[in-house]
Amino acid sequence: MHTSEVPRRSFVKKYHIKGMIVIAILIVLFLYSLKICGVDPSLFVSNIAQFGVLIGQMSNPDWSYFSFIWDPLVQTVQMAILGTTIGTIFAIPAAFLAARNLDHSKVVHGTSRFVLDIFRTLPSLLLAAILVAIFGIGPTTGTITLAIFSFGMISKLFYEVLETVDMGPAEAMKASGASIIQIIRLAIIPQIAGQFCSFFLYTLEVNVRSSTVLGYVGAGGLGLYLQQTIDEFNYSETAVVILATFATVLVIDILSNYLRRKLQ
Amino acid sequence: MTIPKINEKQKRRDRYSWIVWGIIIIVIYGWCFSDMKFSHIQESAGTVSKSIFMGLIHPDWAYIYNGSGEDLVSQLIMTLAIAFLGTIIAAIISVPFAFFASRSKNSKYNVTSKVGTFLLTAIRAFPEIVLAIMFIKAVGPGSFAGVMALGIHSIGMLGKLFSESIEEMNHSSEYSIVAAGGSKPQVFALSTWPTILPALISYTLYSFEISVRSASILGLVGAGGIGAPMIMALNTRNWPRVGIILFGIVVMVMVIDGCSGYIRKKLV
């Protein structure tokens, strides 16, 4: 009787040699990292009492403290809005420079991309820690930090949008004799405006999240109270700060998600 | 030839909606500027930024490696180790979490999905610095606290990305194995898992990139990594050292981003 052959797999594939090697490397790296970091789960057990105190106090938030943190909370949101806006204003020309599909030399977009990459490598808290030394303690520093951070992030998101623009409508308008302003207004902007706004809102979300902790290094906003209450071991007040952060982030996320869905 | 007429009502509504949005935006910015208590820029800002700039262009090269374990290279390796451990732990925990949180087609109410998604959102809302501070109280200052903080924080993100990729997966190969008489474990091992694995690896690498950035600031609050010598150098105004550490972080993040981007491009 004729039997049909099942295709045979090669040795490497049959025993998943590649996958096994990757897993072995990962395990070695994992053990090595455990050693470097000095991870010791017994520490967790020995300190569990203190952690219990922390959790116990935190589950009893001191709501009267909320009146103290209302102002910094508002300041945090303002910092985020202003920072994102300033960053966006600078990011738009940068995005045009870095976009590959617009006619300019390779040198221009290569260098501008490299510079933007460097901007994006720096975490905002680190940037804040440095800028506090220059501009002093306060919300101005926070706003500048967020502006620089959003500049890096938005310009990348924007140039990626710019690269997807379909030049067909622009060429059609040019052929029918439209001026450059008309082309930009009627052929380019409608294609990118929705995504630009959406990315702006997304960056605003990210910035609200990071602005709540910037105060930890002295850059204004809620983070200062986070540090103070923890240093004074007032965990029931810390809980209020954390919950307020949580609520703010959630509200901004919901608002921005709603607006972004409307834009699409 | 006639040009199609836009509905007058629609046109008017469009125009008014722009005015309404304009007013809302102006009110928001007005509120930001009027209420903002701008702190004055220090008078020493000029000299300080000059010395920072001098420090940045004359970095403390001797700090790169001196064998003491407190030098730049060993601190960067430690930062990478924290990010790696946090990501791996989060990735392993996130897989079952993601299966809970993903919406399945069969069930009508998706109770587990709603609960899972809510938990993941709640985890994501905590900044990693806050988690790090809490874990420092639990396990003492050091890298362990950083690992725990990053691990928990990454679960929030990875769980969301994983569950979305599970929801979007292509079920056709699953159906064909069911049709050929495969059991549930066989369907999972031969179809579900191989289908989603590239997406899971790609998202894990992406989360590793983010974790490397976060790990480099955890030291600012005492949770290990390159942030600790950074804040020390900042507090002692040791600008050449700040310069070299910044340089180290930028190079590390760029190299990791490059490698992980390369692998991710090959996976897809």
Automatic annotation (TrEMBL), chain A:
Keywords: Cell membrane, Membrane, Transmembrane, Transmembrane helix, Transport
Cell location: Cell membrane
Family assignment from sequence similarity: Belongs to the binding-protein-dependent transport system permease family.
PROSITE patterns membership: ABC_TM1
Gene Ontology, cellular component aspect: plasma membrane
Record protein name field: Phosphonate ABC transporter, permease protein PhnE
Organism superkingdom: Bacteria
Lineage: Bacteria, Bacillati, Bacillota, Bacilli, Lactobacillales
Keyword Transport in record: yes
Membrane topology classification: Multi-pass membrane protein
Chief localisation class: membrane
Residue ranges occupied by any ABC transmembrane type-1 domain in the UniProt entry: 73-256
Keyword DNA-binding applies: no
NCBIfam families in UniProt: PhnE
Gene this protein is translated from: phnE
From TrEMBL, chain B:
Cross-referenced NCBIfam families: PhnE
Family of the protein in this entry: Belongs to the binding-protein-dependent transport system permease family.
Organism: Fructilactobacillus fructivorans
Keyword presence, Membrane: yes
GO molecular function, one term: ABC-type phosphonate transporter activity
Pfam families: BPD_transp_1
Entry superkingdom: Bacteria
Name of the protein: Phosphonate ABC transporter, permease protein PhnE
Transmembrane segments: 16-34, 76-101, 217-236, 242-263
The UniProt record lists the keyword Transmembrane helix: yes
Main location: other
